[in-house]
């Protein structure tokens, strides 16, 4: 299985520089749609429901303190098979032209993130996991606008 770092490297190689927040949201949607389209997780790292939306801590730990990301220091895009590439490309086609704030707002309106943050105040720190099951259930039941 590929790692989140392989996916992050591919996204930045394919789309160029972007904010750390936007990369995090594109990783989230890549994982979500891989569960639906490919019936498998794209990477094994967990996604946490932070105040500003979904975050993969392993990615955050490498970009902490940086706003703009131009490349990714870890990962190997060769580890991504054709199904993974097709899924990521589909996600990028639909989501990559949106702003980081738009993507964050979208995740806040969807149940995987909001359910994981239940009982937390807006803006309150939290590291609850957004489960693969909640992502699969939610995204497999919405209209396939990007499939």
Could you describe the 3D structure shown?
The relative contact order is 0.23. Strand 2 (47-50) and strand 3 form a beta hairpin. The strands form 2 sheets. A 3-stranded antiparallel sheet has the order 3-2-5. Strands 1-4 form a two-stranded antiparallel sheet. It is built from 7 helices and 5 strands; from the N terminus they run αβαββαβαααβα. The longest helix is centred in the first third of the chain and has 18 residues, at 20-37. With 147 residues, the chain is mostly helical. The protein is globular and about 40 Å long. The mean pLDDT is 95. 50% of the residues lie in helices and 9% in strands. The chain has one domain (4-137).
- Give the uncertain stretches in residue-range form: none
Q: Can you tell me the overall shape?
A: globular
What is the end-to-end distance? 22 Å
Largest sheet composition: 3 strands, antiparallel
Give me the Rg, rounded: 14 Å
Individual helix count = 7
- What is the typical, i.e. mean, pLDDT? 95
Topology of this protein?
Elements (H helix, E strand, L loop, with lengths): L3 H12 L2 E2 H18 L9 E4 L2 E3 L1 H7 L4 E2 L12 H14 L4 H9 L2 H6 L12 E2 L1 H8 L8
Antiparallel strand pairs: 1-4, 2-3, 2-5
Quick structural overview:
The chain has 147 residues and is mainly α. The chain has one domain.
What attributes does this structure have?
7 helices, mainly alpha, 147 residues, three-stranded antiparallel sheet, 50% helix, two-stranded antiparallel ribbon
């Amino acid at each position: 299985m590929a790692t989140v770092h392989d996916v992050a490297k591919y996204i930045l190689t394919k789309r160029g520089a972007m904010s750390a927040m936007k990369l995090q949201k594109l990783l989230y949607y890549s994982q979500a749609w891989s569960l639906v389209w490919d019936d498998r997780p794209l990477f094994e790292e967990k996604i946490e429901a932070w105040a500003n939306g979904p975050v993969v801590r392993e990615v955050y730990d490498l970009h902490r303190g940086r706003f703009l990301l131009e490349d990714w220091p870890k990962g190997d895009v060769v580890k991504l098979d054709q199904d993974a590439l097709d899924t990521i490309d589909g996600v990028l086609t639909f989501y990559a032209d949106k702003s980081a704030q738009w993507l964050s707002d979208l995740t806040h309106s969807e149940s995987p993130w909001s359910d994981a943050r239940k009982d937390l105040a807006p803006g309150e720190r939290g590291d609850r996991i957004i489960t693969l099951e909640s992502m699969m259930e939610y995204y497999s039941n919405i209209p396939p606008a990007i499939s």
